[in-house]
């Protein structure tokens, strides 16, 4: 077998749990004119708007997430710099998306943020979200969730769930690089509890549950090139999560850094079909080179122990690490990568970007036992949809080795 998988399947399920901070921070209010004084009753009435979503509340659809249904609903960051909403807000957002693995399509997210209580210290707003997506190849996903900020952000509680049916090509062995179109149904659920430790540090526990069933898109004689035991699987994990976030903005950071660590352990004692551990770590740093130019750099590492099913190994082309590769071309029990992106705001509502990256992988599936160095790079253009919070719509074109390339449409920054 060779490069098995497109780890991308559940990417759009992240849309489903928008504002539950699946991969980023909760929604901050989209800029609106400061309202005139109003009667108390009117002040308590929710604001309803149709706007482009903040990248923190609706993760970038081009960030291809794992096929593992457990990770489809995993949560993300702290919210450095976020303030609690003065009153309740309801936001509905359409989300265009494009990815080489599942095609182009449209998603939506509905987000409701709760008003702050009188006398409360500023903190992120408790947020409820729901949404989903559909793409040109018939892939779909949807779900809902809630993220609670308790005791003035001393405690954070997240509950989320998602389901869907993702269609993609599974790459098999052979000199012709033939792939088999498959479909993967999934259901995932998550609960998380984190405690603030001060100085923007958070530590907590995460419990996740998921089921997935893999089959062919069309009838045929060829078998799916993975062990039969991995075609219909239940995964149950307990994880330890830590994070520190000192960015000056969750939407368009220009200074500061963000460190994230997640250690997940699946075990048959929990009801999982497999016993293994998986660790992921990312560190991002942001520097303002001049007033209009920002340099963002990121390092990312992943390790999956022996026993992990193919869709929960470490895969390049996901999470916007090394854009330019279809997820599944490079898959291993470990990967490391580094990338840098220069962002130049050359006009009031326009940003252009250029990015380069390199990774190292020793393919778990494939004819070569040697470690490979995998480069990637590209350019992008962003339109600033909301100037106050720097919420952008992003289009990227990226290339990799051996003619690999990909086109992405997303909301917010790549990292």
Output the keywords.
17-stranded mixed beta sheet; 415 residues; two-stranded antiparallel ribbon; disordered N terminus; Porin; single chain; globular; mainly beta
Entry summary:
The chain contains 2 helices and 19 strands. With 415 residues, it is an all-beta fold. The chain has one domain: Porin (Beta Barrel).
Q: Report the strand count.
A: 19
Low-confidence stretches: 1-85
The overall pLDDT average reads 74
Task: Look at the helices and sheets and give the structural class.
Answer: mainly beta
**CATH C-level class:** Mainly Beta
Taken together, the total number of domains comes to: 1
Largest sheet composition: 17 strands, mixed
N-end to C-end Cα span: 32 Å
The share of residues in extended strands comes to over 45%
- CATH architectural label: Beta Barrel
CATH topology: Porin
Characterize the overall form. Answer: globular
Helix proportion range: under 10%
Order of helices and strands: HHEEEEEEEEEEEEEEEEEEE
Number of contiguous helices: 2
How would you explain this protein's 3D organization?
The protein is mostly beta strands and 415 residues long. It has a single domain, classed as Porin. Helices cover 2% and strands 51% of the residues. The protein is built from 2 helices and 19 strands. It has helices at 13-16, 40-43, and strands at 47-50, 89-99, 103-113, 127-135, 140-150, 155-171, 179-198, 201-216, 232-245, 256-266, 276-288, 293-304, 314-315, 331-332, 334-347, 350-361, 372-386, 391-400, 405-411. The strands form 2 sheets. It has a 17-stranded mixed sheet. The longest helix has 4 residues, at 13-16. The radius of gyration is 21 Å and the shape is globular. The two termini are 32 Å apart.
